[in-house]
């Protein structure tokens, strides 16, 4: 009997175990992605390591909603988190994280729906996270905060103004006469005019000091002290500028002012023993504000006026600019200040109807009126650099209206600076955006100017120690250097056997450089890139150029330097460099190290992924980076510089496993011009090669390098969302395009069409249900292609130029530039003017062959488009409507070239996919397509 019972128990156990195993292995039924997932999909918006490398801090936020800060102990991997954290800062001693805590987003929205005033909405709090104890302290109603850049243990924050409670009248005593009530002086209110309460906290023991009515404040870099301005509390604290010594815990008023004085530009030298600030002591409402520069040293009792309009060296009718924050050189020998011409002031006695408002477009203007309008606020605030020598108390103006741009080097310590001017050549920059520049060397002490280059086309720079001016010449496609000591110009790369300019550039203009890495210590060597490798150049050609990475070109690996220290000014001669590596053939990427002392190049990590976002701890070799692929979200990983045993730190979107995602593969084909090309083919999950799938074709120029890029579900930036399409059983094909000058439309056709037909030949593309979509330049190419073929069943063309003859003379409103350069030099690749090559403009304009279009078209053209004139969409729509072609146009009000407002991006995302679903999948035609939305229904009905 016992044997029978035992056998039964064994059978029951086996059956239970078998059921459990079966249940455990049941696959998750994945759902297709829908727009409902957008808001909750998370991004990692910030990542950092404490200086000692022991802790990591990240901000993980949903696309719309409340996020959180996450703090990791990298030894134990224990974590702490704080909800709704933002503006996160780590203290230099690696002990705390300080951040804002935002109010609940939905709560704020609900109060706004109730039409609550701004002052009645919840305010930010301050959060302090202690890494060792993992404790969080919260302080309510905080307006701003700061910590010293290079010192721990101190925090300063300002408190929001408290809302005054309304006092109810006392109706009990009616015997008092109004005449007997003495007027009560109103209490001074906190606010932008008077300032806010400033709290200075020592973090180690939470001891605090409070200061009243503070308008501005700043810590010394190394925590020597804090400076602040106050309008005064009329009793214990007078109006003026104060210095609080953090070592001595002592407060000193260094300038006594008036509550209506305007202080700006608080600046502290690196040693923390000198201050500078700007002061406007005029208490009237005069339109002309005249600032003076004040200077103080810890050995002085009060700050002294250093520069005013009367100071020798300030040009006549010029002022000290309020828009340039004074800057100490690192060695504190020089104080840099901004000067500016006295502004032209309006006549305030005139009524509005008496003021003539007219733009006068003069052909002699050096800059177009539209550019001037875009640059107006910057021009009003433009200042010109001057140097005040703190040793001999002399001021030298370094720049002026004819020589506007100055670049300092060696943290302001160098004797020389670089000055550049494009003023002689500005007239032509409305059609030639590569405006030439004249280059000068400026002596900081004497102000002497020496021209060292004329009409240079290309960017010009100065070396870290100020020994060389160097530039890339677009005309010569080579790097040059100018030795300030010898006044000699040296051609550095022209004789080398490889190109240092873009080898694949197909624009009708000079190709751009691959870029520069930097300089070694003491300006000894200049490091630059070719297409693949890193080269070391002697700035005076005394030593032959050296290819440091050697194998890049032969192995088709692109090496680029990863700057791990944001404050790095130069590279040590024996440094171990961290390099990114991208294989042009396989699209794999990873990391290499390069030892400059031994020239050893070592592979550290490489895989079929994309790596990015590399950050390093300041005082250790601990690093954070992201790894991604089409199917892998770019979560954060932690490692050291050897990349031994990297560990995944985050899993920001665990819900990914619940959704159909798909796959991507690199495909190859040949253009009609017989050029080998590549493209990306995205396939649905559980792809069945025996089935036929509808396919969407999207493109811009070249996209194959994105093989291992991740695309998260989010409202579209004016293009199809490939991950959303693939999740909903579309194929998505993205071909590369190469161009011939003068034939942009035909080049696109010759590249895209053989790619599409090669996909059809694979047998799984439903050739009767293929759509095409593009935005901007892609929109133009879409519009052109459907004039040449009826293969596509539906087309989406966003912000497309369809008439190059009318667009040629238009304005790019985002910059104020003429659109001429677009066609003569840039993306449109015509390579000549409208009157030089009129047939090219006509033949490449889809508008003039719109009668050949048989494809239904969805146009998007926004009425504040800052790149393409929105009347291009109108021309296209009107032509197709006149020809009785199926056409719809979406015009998002007050939106620019690419949609910015989230609600509009969501809306377009839905309409674009409804359009394609109707034509390619046979879905029901939505109301907005079938009947339209009337003006009276706008903003009320969506018609989905």
From TrEMBL:
The keyword Nuclease does not apply. Residues 1-20 form the signal peptide. Pfam families: Peptidase_S9. Residues 166-182 have a biased composition (Basic and acidic residues). Transmembrane segments: none annotated. One of its GO terms (molecular function) is dipeptidyl-peptidase activity. Residues 745-921 form the Peptidase S9 prolyl oligopeptidase catalytic domain. Keywords: Signal. GO terms for biological process: proteolysis. PANTHER family: DIPEPTIDYL PEPTIDASE 9, PROTEASE FAMILY S9B,C DIPEPTIDYL-PEPTIDASE IV-RELATED. This is S9 family peptidase. It comes from Chryseotalea sanaruensis.
């Amino acid at each position: 009997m016992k044997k029978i019972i035992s056998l039964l128990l064994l059978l029951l156990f086996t059956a239970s175990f078998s059921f459990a195993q079966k249940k455990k292995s049941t696959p998750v039924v994945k759902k297709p992605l829908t727009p409902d997932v957008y808001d909750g999909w998370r991004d990692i918006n910030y990542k950092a390591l404490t200086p000692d490398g022991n802790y990591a801090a990240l901000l993980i936020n949903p696309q719309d909603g409340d996020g959180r800060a996450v703090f990791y102990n990298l030894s134990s991997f224990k974590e702490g988190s704080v909800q709704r954290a933002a503006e996160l800062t780590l203290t230099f001693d690696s002990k705390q994280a300080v951040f804002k805590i935002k109010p609940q987003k939905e709560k704020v929205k609900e109060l706004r729906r109730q039409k609550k005033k701004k002052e009645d909405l919840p305010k930010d709090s301050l959060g302090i996270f202690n890494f060792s104890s993992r404790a969080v302290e919260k302080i309510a109603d905080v307006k701003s905060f700061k910590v010293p850049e290079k010192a721990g243990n101190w925090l300063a924050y300002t408190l929001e103004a408290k809302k005054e409670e309304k006092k109810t009248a006392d109706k009990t005593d009616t015997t008092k006469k109004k005449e007997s009530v003495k007027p009560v002086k109103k209490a001074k209110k906190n606010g932008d005019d008077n300032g806010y309460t400033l709290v200075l906290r020592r973090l180690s023991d939470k001891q605090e000091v409070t200061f009243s009515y503070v308008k501005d404040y700043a810590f010394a870099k190394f925590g020597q002290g804090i400076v602040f301005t106050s309008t005064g509390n009329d009793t214990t604290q007078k109006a003026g500028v104060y210095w609080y010594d953090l070592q001595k815990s002592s407060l000193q008023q260094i300038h006594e002012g008036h509550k209506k004085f305007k202080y700006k530009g608080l600046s502290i030298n690196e040693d923390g023993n000198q201050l500078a600030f700007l002061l406007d002591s005029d208490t009237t409402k005069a339109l002309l504000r005249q600032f003076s520069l004040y200077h103080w040293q810890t050995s002085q009792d009060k700050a002294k006026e250093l520069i005013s309009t009367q100071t020798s060296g300030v040009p006549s009718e010029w002022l000290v600019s309020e828009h340039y924050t004074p800057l100490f050189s690192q060695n504190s020998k020089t104080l840099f200040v901004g000067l500016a011409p006295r502004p032209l002031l309006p006549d305030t006695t005139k009524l509005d109807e008496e003021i003539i408002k007219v733009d006068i477009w003069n052909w002699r203007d050096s800059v177009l009126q539209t550019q001037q309008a875009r640059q107006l606020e910057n021009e009003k605030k433009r200042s010109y650099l001057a140097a005040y020598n703190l040793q001999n108390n002399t001021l030298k103006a370094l720049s002026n209206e004819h020589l506007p741009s100055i670049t300092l080097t060696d943290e302001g310590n160098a004797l020389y600076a670089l000055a550049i001017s494009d003023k002689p050549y500005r007239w032509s920059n409305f059609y030639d955006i590569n405006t030439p520049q004249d280059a000068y060397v400026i002596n900081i002490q004497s102000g002497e100017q020496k021209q060292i280059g004329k009409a240079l086309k290309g960017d010009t720079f100065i070396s870290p120690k100020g020994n060389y001016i160097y530039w890339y010449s677009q005309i010569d496609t080579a790097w040059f250097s100018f030795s300030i000591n010898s006044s000699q110009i040296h051609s550095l790369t022209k004789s080398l056997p490889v190109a240092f300019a873009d080898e694949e550039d197909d624009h009708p203009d000079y190709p751009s450089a691959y870029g520069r890495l930097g300089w070694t210590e003491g300006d000894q060597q200049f490091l630059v890139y070719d297409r693949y490798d890193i080269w070391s150049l002697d700035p005076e050609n005394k030593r032959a150029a050296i290819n440091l990475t050697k194998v890049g070109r032969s192995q088709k690996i692109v090496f680029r330097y990863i700057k791990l220290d944001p404050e790095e000014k130069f590279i040590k001669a024996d440094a171990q460099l961290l390099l990114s590596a991208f294989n042009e053939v396989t699209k794999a990427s990873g990391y290499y190290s390069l030892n400059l002392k031994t020239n050893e190049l070592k592979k550290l990590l490489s895989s079929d992924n994309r790596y990015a976002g590399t950050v390093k701890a300041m005082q250790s070799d601990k690093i954070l980076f992201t790894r991604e692929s089409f199917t892998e979200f770019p979560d954060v990983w932690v490692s050291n510089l050897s990349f031994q045993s990297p560990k995944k730190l985050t899993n920001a979107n665990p819900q990914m496993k619940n959704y159909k995602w798909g796959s991507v593969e690199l495909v190859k084909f040949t253009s009609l011009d017989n050029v080998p090309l590549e493209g990306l083919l995205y396939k649905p999950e559980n792809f069945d090669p025996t089935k036929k799938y509808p396919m969407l074709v999207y493109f811009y120029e070249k996209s194959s390098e994105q093989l291992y890029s991740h695309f998260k579900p989010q409202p579209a930036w004016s293009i199809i969302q490939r991950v959303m399409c693939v999740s909903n059983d579309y194929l998505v094909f993205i071909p590369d395009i190469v161009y011939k000058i003068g034939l942009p439309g035909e080049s696109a056709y010759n590249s895209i069409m053989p790619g599409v037909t090669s996909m059809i030949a694979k047998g799984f593309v439903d050739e009767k249900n293929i759509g095409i979509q593009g935005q901007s330049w892609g929109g133009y190419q879409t519009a052109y292609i459907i004039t040449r073929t009826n293969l596509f069943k539906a087309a989406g063309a966003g912000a497309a130029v369809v008439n190059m003859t009318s667009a040629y003379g238009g304005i790019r409103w985002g910059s104020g530039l003429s659109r001429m350069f677009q066609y003569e030099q840039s993306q449109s690749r015509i390579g000549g003017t409208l009157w030089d090559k009129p047939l090219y403009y006509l033949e490449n304009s889809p508008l003039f062959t719109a009668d050949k279009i048989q494809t239904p078209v969805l146009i998007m053209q926004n009425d504040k488009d800052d790149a393409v004139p929105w009347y291009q969409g109108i021309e296209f729509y009107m032509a197709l409507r006149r020809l009785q072609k199926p056409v719809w146009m979406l015009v998002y009000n007050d939106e620019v070239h690419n949609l910015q407002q989230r609600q509009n991006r969501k809306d377009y995302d839905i309409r674009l996919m409804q359009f394609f679903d109707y034509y390619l999948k046979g879905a029901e035609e939505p109301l907005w397509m079938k009947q339209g939305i009337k003006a009276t229904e706008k903003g009320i009905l969506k018609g989905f």
